[in-house]
Amino acid sequence: MIADEITELFTRSDGAYAFARWGRPIAPIVFGVEDTTLGIVKGALEAVCALAGHQMMETDPELGSNCMVFFFREWRELLDVRDLDRLIPDLEPLVARLDDADANQYRVFRFDNTGGIKAAFVFLRMDQNLSAVPAETLALSQVVQTILLWSDKAFRERSPLANVEGGHTILRPEIAGLIRAAYDPTMPLVAKDASHALRLAARLSVQDVN
């Protein structure tokens, strides 16, 4: 990937360049699914964390669980989740807005004092479209979109995943490389300037050489 392509992935609709990665180990919890799907989601997290060289843990010392994934049928079900309104400010108007838009997914990030990701909330309304997606594909897609703070329009035109021979779904190699580069210890935790994309492109070039 060239720098301009990387820049687009972290440039938001308002024109601001905004990059952040997790600044602490990820401690996930999944609601609304059977044990089989729970294992699939956690397996996808383990795979992407291994790719990034990032850690997972059972419990976050501050938050308990810092990556919460919710599966449900109707947005208004979220209003019945105990204490969720304490974690998500203005939950009721948010739910109303998402319901009116007929949205089937939404992600909320929280950040620490340095700007690194400290928590993520993934909401998946299992409508007809999402229900038709294989659990492994859905889990991998959501984890990839949660491992970094991407632009709000990063994957509107093209999924981070690709289908390969045999009907399998994989993470696109260039996105996998970008995640590895973003978590390189020499790279910053947070970036607000597009020159950061040049550094990511340089790291990708080093990966290609190696």
SSE blueprint:
Elements: H1 3-9, E1 19-20, E2 28-31, H2 35-52, E3 67-72, H3 84-87, H4 91-100, E4 105-111, E5 117-125, H5 128-131, H6 135-147, E6 161-164, E7 168-171, H7 173-182, E8 190-191, H8 195-209
Parallel strand pairs: 2-3, 3-5
Antiparallel strand pairs: 1-8, 4-5, 6-7
Helix pairs in contact: 1-8, 2-6, 7-8
Overview of the structural elements:
- Helices cover 39% and strands 18% of the residues.
- By secondary structure, it is an alpha/beta fold.
- It has two domains: 1-21 and 150-210, no CATH class; 22-147, 3-Layer(aba) Sandwich (Collagenase (Catalytic Domain)), CATH 3.40.390.
- A four-stranded mixed beta sheet has the order 2-3-5-4, with helices on one face. Strands 1-8 form a two-stranded antiparallel sheet. It has a two-stranded antiparallel sheet with strand order 6-7.
- A hairpin with a 3-residue loop joins strand 6 and strand 7.
- Helix 1 packs across helix 8 (195-209), helix 2 (35-52) packs across helix 6 (135-147) and helix 7 (173-182) packs across helix 8.
- The longest helix is centred in the N-terminal third of the chain and has 18 residues, at 35-52.
- It is globular, with a radius of gyration of 17 Å.
- The two termini are 16 Å apart.
